[in-house]
Amino acid sequence: TKFTIALFCVLSLSSCSNNDDNDSSSGSFSINGEKCEIHDASCSFHGTISDDLGEFEIPPHGSFTMQVVFDESLYYFSFSIDDASSSDIIKTGENLVANGLVSVDAFRQITMAELSTRYYDEDGKLSISEKGSNYVVVNFDNFSFVKDTGKSETQYTINGKVKFVDINE
Question: Which residues, 6+ apart, have CB-to-CB distance to 46 below 8 Å?
Fold first, then answer.
C-alpha cells in the first residue's frame, strides 16, 4: 500500500530518467519558450510497408517519438520524416522542413485521447546534426506547427536538440 506506492514512484522516476553517458539531449529544449525535460526519445526507420494483397502501402519513413514535460504535464510528441528508410539516407544539416519531409503526427498529454486532431503548417528548421550506430540527434530551430482540435487551433514552436535512440538497432 504505502510501500507499493513509494516503490511505484521510485520505479517510474528511474525508468523515465535519461542517464546515458553519451547523452546529447542534455542541452536546452523548449516548447513555446518554456524549458522542458525530456523523459524518453526513440526512433525507428521503415522501408515500404504493404499488405500481401497490395491493398495498402505505407511509403518509407522515419518515426520519432518522445515524452516531454511541458506545462507541468507529461506530453507525447511524435513526428515522421518521409522517404527516410534508414538514418543513412538523411544528410546531416539538411533542413527537412524546407524539403517538405516532416509531418507532426501527435502532440498531446499522455492522459488525453484526441481522435479528431490535425497537425499542419510545419515551419522553421528540423535537421539531423549527428548520427551514430544506434541514434540520431535532431535539432529543432524555431520548428513550429499548428494543432487543430476542431474547437481551437494552437501553434507550438520547438527549439533545442534531442538524442533519439533507434529502437531497431
Answer: 58, 60, 61, 62, 63, 85
Which of 45, 105, 96, 39 has its CA nearest to residue 73? 39
Query: What does residue 150 show for φ and ψ, rounded to 5 degrees?
Result: 95, -25
- Which residue, among 114, 116, 85, 117, has the nearest Cα to 101 in the 3D structure? 85
Identify the three-state secondary structure at position 10. helix
- Give first-to-last CA distance, the chain, whole Å: 39
Alpha-carbon span 67 to 108, nearest angstrom: 10
DSSP state of 91: P
Could you tell me which residues come within 8 angstroms of residue 160 by beta carbon, excluding any fewer than 6 positions away? Answer: 27, 28, 29, 30, 139, 140
Helix (H) / strand (E) containing 131: strand 118-131
In this predicted structure, what is the pLDDT of residue 74?
96
Is the pLDDT score of 1 beyond 50? Answer: no
Does pTM top 0.85 for this prediction?
no
pLDDT tens string 72-127: 999 999 999 999 999 999 999 999 999 999 999 999 999 888 888 999 999 999 99
- Can you tell me the distance from the alpha carbon of 105 to that of 77, in angstroms, rounded to the nearest whole number? 8
How many angstroms separate the CA atoms of 99 and 82, rounded? 10
